[in-house]
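#struct-help
A.M.: can someone run this one for me? Single chain, 70 residues.
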Amino acid sequence: MTTITIDGKEYEYEGLSDKAKAQLTSMQFVDNELARLQAQASVLQTARMAYSKELQNELNPLGSGDTIKF
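D.P.: on it. Structure tokens below:
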């Protein structure tokens, strides 16, 4: 049988009520979505930094002048 640990306590999955199983499924879905969104945010932050660097290069092609801070 499958056991799960919640708050340090082990439970037999098959012994959970249908409502508890549904809540667990919902929590797993939310955890997966959060992980997906965090990965997407990381990709977007990387892209933003690349765009910022290219903008700085465009505005200061010879490396002269002040650095733009965003």
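A.M.: thanks! The first strand starts at residue 3 and ends at 6.
D.P.: also worth noting: The chain has one helix and two strands.
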